[in-house]
Write a structure and sequence with these properties.
Blueprint: E1 5-12, E2 27-33, E3 38-45, H1 51-58, E4 68-71, H2 78-86, E5 90-95, H3 100-111, E6 124-132, E7 135-144, E8 157-169, E9 172-184
Parallel strand pairs: 1-4, 4-5
Antiparallel strand pairs: 1-2, 2-3, 5-9, 6-7, 7-8, 8-9
Length: 185
């Protein structure tokens, strides 16, 4: 299954909770083949806090050889990376403050790109501009080296995805930067 992108994500099923009856919402983790529109597997878990365990149980059931597995920040664990690489796959893991040392290292890395005295590092930048619905949105993706990726097997580089929105309401502009760093194998 070369080139297959498998998106792993957890969701709480809306409308499944019945607090009056003591029933909590069902939470499940799914593996979705993005290019095919197919769910490859799913596991129920007790709560969102058990999502990491469920991902760890779901990964061995998938044919990962040649696939790229994407997981949001809750799955940014070196054990997940090891399982994916061990199964013959590659990974893209979102990094947020649940991994404070890694997030800090990546912020420092991307914050110093192009600064005076910065050593020349191999990077690439892609930017898109969208206009509509009363706002202008600029999306920028910067690819960089391996800085700060110790402990993540097979890690080849980093991506920094930033979005800058300009909302135009009655002549007023608001700038809302949103940044997200990711490990990329």
């Amino acid at each position: 299954m070369g080139g297959l992108v498998i998106a792993i994500n957890g969701k709480s099923l809306r409308g499944a909770a019945r607090p009056a009856c003591g029933l909590r919402a069902l939470h499940q983790v799914s593996a979705y083949a993005a290019g095919y529109g197919l769910t490859l597997g799913q596991l129920a878990c007790q709560e969102k806090s058990n999502e990491i365990t469920a991902i760890g149980e779901l990964l061995p059931t998938l044919a990962l050889e040649g696939a790229v597995v994407t997981i949001d920040a809750i799955g940014c664990q070196s054990a997940m990376a090891e399982q994916i690489v061990g199964g013959g796959g590659d990974y893209v893991l979102a990094v947020k403050d649940n991994q404070p040392h890694l997030a800090h290292a990546l912020r420092d890395f991307f914050g110093t790109l192009g600064a005076p005295g910065d050593p020349v590092r191999q990077t690439c930048v892609h930017e898109t501009l969208d206009k509509g619905h009363g706002r202008i949105e600029t999306r920028r993706c910067t690819g960089g080296g391996r800085s700060g990726l110790a402990g993540y097997p097979g890690a080849q580089g980093t991506l920094d995805q930033g979005t800058l929105e300009e909302d135009h309401f009655g002549g007023l502009y608001r700038l809302q930067p949103r940044d997200r760093q990711q490990d990329r194998d």
